[in-house]
Amino acid sequence: MSKILLQTTIEANPDDWDVSRFSMLADELRAAGHDVVARNRVAGHDPVLSRVDELGFDQLWLMAVDVGDGLTAADAAAIARFRCAGGGVLTARDHQDLGCCLNLLGSLGAVNEFHDVTVDPATMCDDLDTPTISWPNYHSGANGDYQPVLAPDRVHDLLRTDRTASGRIEWFPAHPHEGLVSADDVPDAGVLAQGRSATTGRVFNLAVLLDGERGPAGQPMGRAVAESTFHHFADYNWDIDCGAPSFVTEPPGSQIKDDPARLEVFKGYVRNVAAWLHPAARLPIAV
Q1: Which residues of 120-155 are buried (b: 16+ CB within 10 A; e: fewer)?
Q2: pLDDT tens digits, 116-149
């Protein structure tokens, strides 16, 4: 099993999306047998993230919950070295520019698209209920609800399960304004799963994979997964009774609370990702 760093890009703040709001994710990874270190960044020079390639971690699950200053150049360089040495990385951001520090991460930044002032918001805004949030902001449903997952014709192993009749994971937690991840024009990138807007019907990417990249010396780089929103993994989206920061104003849904069985299937996706990102061996996919 892996040693996983579950890291946010903000300092500890009980009224924000700090690491305490991803406790259920940490517990799920630990239940799968992984050694998980869950932490927030610290002010100034972060002694862990800036040396992630030196501290024995196999994977980095990076919850990019900042507004632009979540990574330093030293952090980004360490993450690049980590991937070049085979380390697996998952990133998760959110709407508009939330988590745009990911732009420092080369190809892993390139698959994350953030707000572009040259784009007319009227042509791209999808969440129509929260006018203070601009593009990208795909509305997959209320926090606490499910969204259906659209999979390509060839279903990736990360979406495989023996717990549904279709043999694949069919539901992700929903969120009113997801960000944008794209495999367009990024070598070795591919779309894993898509969703459909509950307001406009637009199809958008829920997760993009990087697999097969080579480092500067030609060595295989670690795999990576880029998620359109960290709300796929937040405690609040798995259990609305956990509560959210005070700035969250959208009314939650109750589908997950009313039917938790589909969430248990989704947790198989979490375990699949952790197996797939392991650098030393291509482990069997959990179901």
Answers
A1: ebeebbbbeeeeebbbbbbbbbbbbbbbebebeeeb
A2: 767 766 666 776 777 777 778 899 999 999 999 9
Task: Tell which wins on pLDDT, 128 or 201.
Answer: 201
Q: Which residues, in sequence order, are bridge partners of residue 147?
A: 172
Q: Which CATH superfamily is domain 3-276 in?
A: Class I glutamine amidotransferase (GATase) domain (3.40.50.880)
**Phi, psi (degrees; rounded to nearest 5) at 120:** -70, 115
CA separation for the pair 71, 33 (Å, rounded):
29
Q: Are 70 and 42 in contact (CB under 8 A)?
A: no
The pTM of the whole model exceeds 0.85? yes
Element (H, E) at 79: helix 73-84
DSSP one-letter code for 266:
H
Run of H or E residues at 265:
helix 261-276
Residue 286 pLDDT exceeds 50: no
170: which residues sit within 8 A by CB, 6+ positions away? 148, 149, 164, 262, 265
**Of 239, 286, 270, the residue nearest 90 (C-alpha):** 270
Q: Give domain limits for the chain.
A: 3-276
